Amino acid sequence: MSKKVIFATGNAGKLEEIKMILSDLDIELLSMKEAGIEVDIVEDGTSFEENAMIKAKTIMELTGEITLADDSGLEVDYLNKEPGIYSARYMGENTPYNIKNKSIIDRLEGVEGQDRSARFVCVIAAVFPDGRAFTTRATIEGLIGYEEKGDNGFGYDPIVYIPEYNATTAQLTAQIKNTISHRGKALEQMKEILKKNYN
Ligand code: IMP
């Protein structure tokens, strides 16, 4: 029988992406909703690792099943790595992203070239019922653009320009983004850890 693994997210898009990447593992991947869990988790950690662990540990304790969770965000070097772990909350959770993106572009006025460096960071945490816990971290490096470009993706995608692809992450197809993205790469690393540890 395949093992149950819960992914601690309410985000359907993330769950689909994760199902695709982990599809060759013999696991039954469930969202919190599918596992019958509804909780509001306070993410009061001071790093992506802490926040991902808080989410995974809370849900593992409620379900008794292996639980995965992610935490991600955008780091802009010129802004001392803001918005970082506050990426979703930057300027308020409900502020539209075209306003958040414009604010970041405006704060980089007069800043040129490599000084516009930024990255998306993703940390995946896994917590097992016996207490074993793991995290993986990956990034995708880019530069903050001068205007929003592209309609794919979500959030800060239209302002993160990836020089190697001559495109923002909002101009990449979902398939390409999944293979090169912070989340895709962190998940691939976690897949190897799961393969070694879930017996
Ligand atoms: P989380 O869902 O708590 O991990 O929040 C991550 C936040 O970081 C999102 O709400 C976005 O603002 C931002 N973010 C993370 N990954 C991406 C991405 O791939 N594209 C655009 N924005 C992202």
UniProtKB/TrEMBL annotation:
It catalyses: ITP + H2O = IMP + diphosphate + H(+); dITP + H2O = dIMP + diphosphate + H(+); XTP + H2O = XMP + diphosphate + H(+). Keywords: Hydrolase, Magnesium, Metal-binding, Nucleotide metabolism, Nucleotide-binding. It comes from the Bacteria. Its cofactor is Mg(2+). Substrate binds at T9, G10, N11, A12, G13, K14, S72, F154, G155, Y156, D157, K177, H182, R183. GO terms for biological process: nucleotide metabolic process; purine nucleoside triphosphate catabolic process. Binds 1 Mg(2+) ion per subunit. It is an enzyme of class 3 (hydrolase). Pyrophosphatase that catalyzes the hydrolysis of nucleoside triphosphates to their monophosphate derivatives, with a high preference for the non-canonical purine nucleotides XTP (xanthosine triphosphate), dITP (deoxyinosine triphosphate) and ITP. Seems to function as a house-cleaning enzyme that removes non-canonical purine nucleotides from the nucleotide pool, thus preventing their incorporation into DNA/RNA and avoiding chromosomal lesions. Homodimer. NCBIfam families: RdgB/HAM1 family non-canonical purine NTP pyrophosphatase. This is dITP/XTP pyrophosphatase. It comes from [Clostridium] fimetarium. The lineage of its organism: Bacteria, Bacillati, Bacillota, Clostridia, Lachnospirales.
